[in-house]
Amino acid sequence: MSIILGCIADDLTGATDLAMILVREGMKTVQIVGEPNADTPAPDAEAVVVALKSRTNDAQEAISMTINSCKWLQSLGAKQIFFKYCSTFDSTDKGNIGPVTDALMSHLECSSTIACPAFPENNRTVYRGYLFVNDGLLSESSLRNHPLTPMKDANLNRILSTQSSANISNLYFEEIEMGHEVISQTIAEKDTGPRTIHITDALNDNHLRSIGKACKDMKLVTGGSAIAQGLPLNFQEQGLLSSRREEQLFSAPKGPSVILSGSCSEATRSQVNYAQNHLPSFCLDAVEILNNEAVAEKAVTWAADHIKADTPVLLYSSADPAVVKQIQSNENQVDVGSRVEAVIGEIAQQLHALGACRFVVAGGETSGAVINTLNVKTMSIGPQIDPGVPWTTTTVDKKPIALALKSGNFGTEDFFIKALNQLKQYEIS
């Protein structure tokens, strides 16, 4: 099967979110983890989502990983490329959204694309070019304190203009509201240079579907995962999708469950606090990790009896932003994050060896570390837990495991408990 839509996500949780939406919209979808190469087998799918860990990398490294992935997807027949980033536009003044988009436009020889991070179902909307989170400006949300990508400006035109060499234009609510034909016409009228990126307002899913329909002939689409719901219909109308929709069945292995949280987002800290009232929990102290103490060994020793008794456990490094800021004031902030992630990855590997086969992981960078340590290469998409977060399954050491990989800011307060309870209806022995 020649693929139709090739997707590149700048982090793992976003890739999973995107794959879930494409499955829901009727595309046979496979997610692969990490930069593909000549030895990566061609998936049997209509859409392939490549999950990179490039959001906070050096811009040139992120560009190289993305372009190599794009070339691989093109070699499989991809007719359209989708570059997926966070619905809160997580980046810095130097990138990586702008530089990667510029590189993709140059490689694909396209003069026009969109930037649409909106995810209304998760309360991320764009109006007059400003990104709102939970009805407030992005710059007034908890994202302004993100340790790696602090979002202190909600004006997407201003953010992207500092990152990209392309002309940046806005498609406002009034134009979006009039439907895909007006959107297409407006895009054509505003293509004023060799490359133009059009930032699109979007307040609801109807807007996203209209924008998606207007992207029918674009070589490149960029945005959050939600804009993808408007793309499969274009391929269906062109007769490119299989007329026979095969249900993607999901089953979960029965066995011990582990929750691993490395995100310091407001949503995740609330979820950790809630879960502590229901599950045995263990705090992974970042200061001890930075002092090279045997934190992983202590955590695994603590968890071992619970794993043996098939009791779900919570292990977390999530901390209040003030605590994180104090730690980072004495250390390189990227190094702090990577060392904590490495410890959580090591814990996941050892607990899997002890029999754990269900993992809920909070945080994009943390999820990447766990997946890399477990050497996961492909993932099958299962049912949604909360908007933007599905269960997935894969095989590690020839044994099935279930994974729920959550972006730090996604999910309700009871997310961890809800995720574990949901698996009961899908259990296999």
General description of the model:
The chain is α/β, with parallel strands linked by helices. Helix content is 38%, strand content 22%. The protein has helices spanning 12-24, 59-75, 97-108, 156-163, 173-177, 180-190, 205-214, 232-237, 266-276, 286-290, 295-308, 321-330, 333-353, 364-374, 415-422; strands at residues 5-9, 29-33, 47-51, 80-84, 112-116, 124-127, 130-133, 136-137, 167-171, 196-200, 220-223, 252-253, 257-261, 281-283, 313-316, 358-362, 378-386, 389-396, 399-406, 427-428. The protein has a 15-stranded mixed sheet with strand order 9-10-5-11-4-1-3-2-17-18-19-16-13-15-14, sandwiched between helices. Strands 6-7-8 form a 3-stranded antiparallel sheet, with no helix packed on it. Strand 7 (130-133) and strand 8 form a beta hairpin. It starts with a strand and ends with a strand. The model has no long low-confidence stretch (mean pLDDT 92).
* SS field, number of helical segments: 15
What is the CATH architecture term of the largest domain?
3-Layer(aba) Sandwich
| CATH homologous superfamily label of the largest domain | Putative sugar-binding, N-terminal domain
Integer tally of domains: 2
Overall residue-averaged pLDDT value: 92
Secondary structure layout:
Blueprint lengths: L4 E5 L2 H13 L4 E5 L13 E5 L7 H17 L4 E5 L12 H12 L3 E5 L7 E4 L2 E4 L2 E2 L18 H8 L3 E5 L1 H5 L2 H11 L5 E5 L4 H10 L5 E4 L8 H6 L14 E2 L3 E5 L4 H11 L4 E3 L2 H5 L4 H14 L4 E4 L4 H10 L2 H21 L4 E5 L1 H11 L3 E9 L2 E8 L2 E8 L8 H8 L4 E2 L1
Helix pairs in contact: 2-3, 6-7, 11-13, 13-14
